[in-house]
Amino acid sequence: MTFIEFPGWQPGMEMTEERMNSAALIGRTVFKATRDTSQSIPDTASANPDVANSLSWETVEIDDLGGWASGAPTRYTSQLDGWYKIDAKVSFNGSAAGTARTLGIFESGTLAPGGHYRSAKTPTALVDTVTGFLSLLLAAGDYIQLAPGQSTGSALLTATGGTRPIIEITFARPA
Fold this sequence. Notes:
This protein is mainly beta. It has one domain: Jelly Rolls, CATH 2.60.120.40. Helices cover 4% and strands 43% of the residues. It is built from one helix and eleven strands. The chain has one helix spanning 17-23, and strands at residues 28-34, 40-41, 59-63, 76-77, 82-92, 100-107, 110-120, 128-138, 143-150, 156-157, 166-173. Strands 3-1-11-5-8 form a five-stranded antiparallel β-sheet, with no helix packed on it. The longest helix is centred in the N-terminal third of the chain and has 7 residues, at 17-23. The chain is elongated, with a radius of gyration of 18 Å. The protein starts with 16 loop residues before the first helix and ends with a strand.
């Protein structure tokens, strides 16, 4: 299936296979991945997310546009210009230490405006989950990373099983 830059239907526009395929992308999940084994996340200043601690994706269930590569497992790279909706979740194993858990959505290495999610917590031994969502205008070649942060005073592992970290990216519309 071939996808092209698609500005939307215009009067008199010829319907080609490539244009029809690209129109079908609107509202479609184009990437979904999970982190299935624990990843160690060091304590960060004020629990702020740090791109150096970005999650490495292990199980890629959907990658319709070929934006993920095992050589750069923390990144999803946009293949087409457009608006993308990023839905993200990170969960940490329970720890009674610390007062915050965070998640950052980074665009090409920089924390996206509005992409910092923080969960103040009451010390407990239960799994802590932080979720976030954001729509971003990406150019082909821009990349997305998810980076957790935490304030336990030492490294903390991400959770596994049903609470494991996940990312889903939907192509919302052309640029």
